[in-house]
Amino acid sequence: MSRFDMEGAINFIREGDDFLIVSHVQPDGDAVSSLLAAALVVRSLGKRCTTAIADRVPPKLMFLPGSDLIRNARTEEPPGRLYSRVIAVDCADFSRMGMAANWIGDDARLLNIDHHPTNDGFGDVTLIRPEAAATAEILHELVTAMGVRWTKPLAECIYTGILTDTGGFRYTNATPASLRIASEMMEHGASGSRIAEHLLERVSLAHVILLKKALATLSFTEGNRIGWVTVTRSDMEEANAQSEDLEGLVNYPRNIEGVEVGILFKEVDENKVKVSLRSAGAVDVAAFAKSFGGGGHVRAAGITLHMPLQEAVETVVGGLRGLMA
Ligand code: 5GP
Ligand code: MN
């Protein structure tokens, strides 16, 4: 079976009439945009769908049309009747959907649309393209293949997913195709400047307070090849911050001249740490993350470790140091 089964994906959507569309916990721009684009495709065919994410949608993404309808599967009880036809977007493995999995019936059929090279191929039909800069690019291809009519909301979703996953068209994953699709989306009504203002320019006050605290923890290995910052639970409380306020912090160590891997350690609780890894290119952080049960992309990956903060720092920095020696 092909990992990129467009015919299977189209049949999967045409055959169903009531879908659950889910994406990953701590959703980013591509997760929410791809989920909303998939919902617009399904609804354009006159079919019903429910959208759910096991977290709240970050306020900065609430300008996206339909974002207010996304159910929070972390705080809401699963519905009485579980879903039997599911589309998962931007999820590299089943567990990435977190508690949204509780909304899925045992005998459900699942379509897996994703661009993570570490995707484990879960589900009955897969539409996986690691060359795509964003899952939203795959949604663009699906819309085109199905002949769904372009609308401004659909165009804005696709544009947003590509903009956010390429860091504003700056990362190496941005290809000529990414820019061509973005250009096409502007022709269909997407406002590039409005979307960039929401997502690249504006920052929350909590983010700036966290940045101050995080930079005070900035540390390096000798030669500055690995740089990292830490954020504790009390930092989060004092800044009145949500997890989305952490976005972009990992780029500060990563962007420093000479740093090959930048890391953010976020203390979730006493024995749980979320690790964000960013590589300047030489080190494959996806492979490293995978060896700890995490995953992601060559230059951007994540891990959740069940240990105290200090131990997590020693484990990850020590492991990377061995790898880079
Ligand atoms: P971030 O550090 O921004 O949370 O994640 C960076 C990249 O790694 C994203 O593409 C994200 O989907 C992926 N990622 C983060 N944490 C995990 C994880 O625990 N498992 C997997 N498979 N991927 C992750
Ligand atoms: Mn993505």
Report on the structure:
- It is a single chain.
- The protein is α/β, with parallel strands linked by helices.
- The protein folds into 2 domains: about 200 residues, inorganic pyrophosphatase (n-terminal core), CATH 3.90.1640; about 120 residues, Diaminopimelate Epimerase, Chain A, domain 1, CATH 3.10.310.30.
- The chain is about 35% helix and about 20% strand.
- The chain is built from 11 helices and 12 strands.
- The strands form 2 sheets. It has a 6-stranded parallel β-sheet with strand order 3-2-1-4-5-6. Strands 7-8-9-10-12-11 form a 6-stranded mixed β-sheet, sandwiched between helices.
- Strand 11 and strand 12 form a beta hairpin.
- Helix 2 runs parallel beside helix 3 and helix 4 runs antiparallel to helix 5.
- Bound molecules: guanosine-5'-monophosphate (5GP) and manganese (II) ion.
Q: Choose one word for the global shape.
A: globular
CATH architectural category of the largest domain: Alpha-Beta Complex
- Overall radius of gyration: 19 Å
- Number of helices, where a helix is a run of at least 4 consecutive DSSP H or I residues: 11
**The CATH H-level homologous superfamily of the largest domain:** inorganic pyrophosphatase (n-terminal core)
